[in-house]
From TrEMBL:
Lineage of origin: Bacteria, Bacillati, Bacillota, Clostridia, Eubacteriales
GO biological process, one term: tRNA methylation
Protein name: Probable dual-specificity RNA methyltransferase RlmN
Entry annotation: catalytic residues: 94 (proton acceptor), 333 (s-methylcysteine intermediate)
Positions that bind [4Fe-4S] cluster: 114, 118, 121
Organism: Thermoclostridium stercorarium subsp. thermolacticum DSM 2910
Amino acid sequence: MDSALINIYDLEFEELKNEILKLGEPAFRAKQVWKWIYQGTTRFDDMTDLPKAFRERLKGVFYIGGAGIVNKFVSQKDGTRKYLLALYDGKVVECVLMKYHYGNSVCISTQVGCRMGCRFCASSQPGFDRNLSTGEMIAQVMAIRNDTEEKISHIVLMGIGEPFDNYDNVVRFLRRMNSQNTLNISYRKMTVSTCGLVPGIIKFSEEGFPVNLSVSLHAPNDEIRMKIMPIAKRYSIDNILSACNIYTQKTGRRVTFEYTLIKDVNDRNEHAEELARKLSGLLCHINLIPVNSVEETGYTKSERVESFRRIIEKYGIPVTVRRELGSDIAASCGQLRKRSVERDRMVD
Ligand code: SAH
């Protein structure tokens, strides 16, 4: 493909309008094109209310950078759909569609690979490749919407990658998905999950939108956290909690702390006590996740989820245990891409 072409999903509406004016076409053409692409159209030839000659000229400037479905797995248990999607350069990312009683939620990736190196996570293992552009994040949502033909009501950034390590593209993506002229998804139905990049949390609190913030804590103290999350060496739990306090004050939203329970690592009663004491007083919610065992990590599922939950509850902190959606289709972060990259390496 001609690399001088512009991915139309990467443009803001005003930018598209300017490009179309440069082609000598009236501004209303930009509205028509915009409407088509956010309806899910992936070919200029399908934009039937545009003159044919204009469609040809569009092809000389833009491409619709959709994501191709390489593989799709549908859970027989709960209808969760996991996708392996290919981007324009052939790199692959993962997304998941989860069906809840309140609507359909898509979980998308923000990077090809990840630099954070969390020991239990499959995303880090094949290494980091590159950031995704705003358009490539949009392409994931549109690919799932086109495939299911169902309304997407929620977006979570919990796929491959660390959203705050690709901050500007992520914020542009959230704003775009919120726009009335695209998918019109409310900020309150969007969630960004971070491993705790403190400057990112603080900057995010200043964006002026009520997006849900999820922080992957996974440990009650820095000592344990450092063993499983290298980023803990850069930012302490105290630093993270101060930043979260700022976030709740600025946005009025409670923060969710993700806590993956790993057998013999962070699942003892005293860990629950320590965690609850540390978080008391903060506008928050704890989400306990039974770890998904990933080959080569050596970590296994804790059987202590219930007792851990009860202790936290005793401290009056809202706590839930994440439903394990799609457990029959390896729907956990990075597992599919890891397999796909490994397969490619074997072929090489
Ligand atoms: N980088 C971001 C978002 C991607 S990971 C973050 O760290 O939050 C999304 C969530 O899945 C995180 O809470 C992550 O810690 C968790 N996760 C990763 N691997 C997991 C595994 N094997 N089992 C359970 N949860 C896992």
